[in-house]
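Technical annex B. To support the medicinal chemistry partners, we prepared a structural model of the target in complex with NAP, based solely on the information shown next.
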Amino acid sequence: MTKKLALVTGSQQGIGFGLVKALCKSFDGDVILTGLTEQDATNACAELEKQGLKPVPHQLDVRDQESVDRLRDFIKEKYGGLDILINNAGISFLAEMMRARGAEVPAHLAATSRAEIAAETMKVNFFGTLRVTTAMTPLLRAHARVVQTTSFGATQLVKRMKGDKADALLRTDWTTPSLCHFVDQYIKDVASGEHTSLGWPEDSSYLLASWAVWNLARVQQKTFDEDNNDVIVNAACPGITATEITNFKGKTIEEGCESALYLASLPHEASSPRGEMVHGKFVCGFNSAPPGLVTSEELFKN
Ligand SMILES: NC(=O)c1ccc[n+]([C@@H]2O[C@H](COP(=O)([O-])OP(=O)(O)OC[C@H]3O[C@@H](n4cnc5c(N)ncnc54)[C@H](OP(=O)(O)O)[C@@H]3O)[C@@H](O)[C@H]2O)c1
C-alpha cells in the first residue's frame, strides 16, 4: 500500500518544528522535516528521535530552484506523491519591525537597507511559497491539503497604503502572474526609494508578503478546483507565537501550530474553508478579525 506523506518547509525550529512533531504523532504516514542545510535537518530530526518520533530529514532552501527540485525528485521516487504540504518557511527582519514601531534600530541591524529587506522577504516568504507549491503540485494526491503561512497583520495594510495601491489590496481578480508583477513592482519601487510617494507602505515588507501569500492561496484554490481532485489550500495565521521571529514573545509553539494543523486535517470534500486566511478555525478578512487575537502592536508596546 502507498505510504502517505506530509512535508513541512522551514521546520528545523519554531512553528515548523512544532508542526513536524505534532504530525509525527497524529498523521498516518511519514513527515519530512527540512533545514537550510542537511546537517540542520538531521540535527532537528535527532531531537525528535529522542522522543520516539521518526521524521525524515531533507535539505531545502526555498530560494533555490535546484534545492526545491531535488526535494521534489526525492518525494517522487520514494513516495510517488504528497498528501500534506505546509509552506511554513519564512523570515522577518527585526530592523523592519523596529522601524515600523518608531524604535531606534541598533547599528548592526540598520546595516540592512530597506531595499534588501523588501527583496529578501519577498524572495523567501512569497516567491519561496510559490516555488515550492508549483514544484509539488504535480505530486499532490487526491484530497491533499496545502497550507500557506500568512499573518492577519496583512489586513492592517489598507491603513498604511494609498491610492491605487490601497485599492489593489481589495481586488478579487488576482492571478499568479499579476501577483508576481505587483510584488516585483514593490521591490523595484523600494529600491528606487520612491515607494511611499507611489502609495506603498513604509517598513511593511513582511505584511505585504503575508497579503500576497493569502491571495496566492485564493488563486491556487481556483486552479485546484478545476482538477476536481478535492485538493484544498488555505493560508494559516498562527498568531503571535514565541519563536526567533518575535524574540520569543507570544503564545506557545503548540498554540501557534493549531491553525495549520486544523487546515492540514480538513476532512474529505470539506466545503469550507477553501482559499481563505484562517486563524484557529476562524476565517479572517479585512473586516473580520479573529476574536481575542493579540496583535504585534499590543505585544510589543512595552
Ligand atoms: N511567530 C509568529 O508570531 C508568526 C506570526 C505570523 C506568521 N508567522 C510565520 O510562521 C512561519 C514560521 O515562523 P516561526 O515564527 O516559527 O519563525 P522561525 O523560528 O524563525 O522559523 C522559520 C523557519 O524558516 C526557515 N527558513 C528561513 N529562510 C528559509 C529559506 N530560504 N528556505 C527554507 N527555510 C527557511 C528558518 O530556518 P533557520 O532555522 O535556518 O533560520 C526557520 O527554520 C513563518 O513563515 C512566519 O512568517 C510567524
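Notes passed to the chemistry partners:
The longest strand covers residues 140-149.
The first helix runs from residue 14 to 26.
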